[in-house]
Amino acid sequence: MTDSQPKPGIIPWPPLIYIAAIAISVALGLFYPLPWIGDLLGDILFAAGWVALLAVAALWFTAIRTMMLAKTTLNPNAVPDHLVTAGPFGITRNPMYLANTLLLIGVAFVSGIAWFLPLAFIAAFVTQKVAIEGEEKILAAKFGKKYRDYAKRVRRWI
Q1: pTM summary value
Q2: CA distance readout (Å), 123 to 41, 98, 126, 137
Q3: Who's near 54: CB < 8 A, 6+ residues apart?
Q4: 150 FRET partner, CA 20 to 30 A, in 82, 105, 114, 141?
Q5: Angle (CA) 99 132 63, round 5°
């Protein structure tokens, strides 16, 4: 990359954003608990939460495996060696960030701590602003038309 091209940041924001969202959700749940849905709908959400957590594990595993097979970096602050478009990257351009967001939603449904829901969407929004948009500039600068075609074909989230 030349000096005029965008560069990755130094701080690995996405993991820190989601860790902060988890910590804030737990703290708010302890000190300012919100009411949760009970009875049958609560049981359905509990089961849906476990399905979401299984989806999180599948997304993480397949995304990491796909990136390793492509011999590119897993570090969100490194410039990738290859544009990965296979596996879960054929469905979403950000399967790891989607998995992190889904993790918070799944935990909300399983634990009944409602604060995880708004914090999941706030974490996703902040991740998009401080990480994804910069990563997309780097990918566009490095891979050009190949990345732009991919971005037109595959959505950022879902």
Answers
A1: 0.90
A2: 26, 11, 5, 20
A3: none
A4: 105
A5: 35
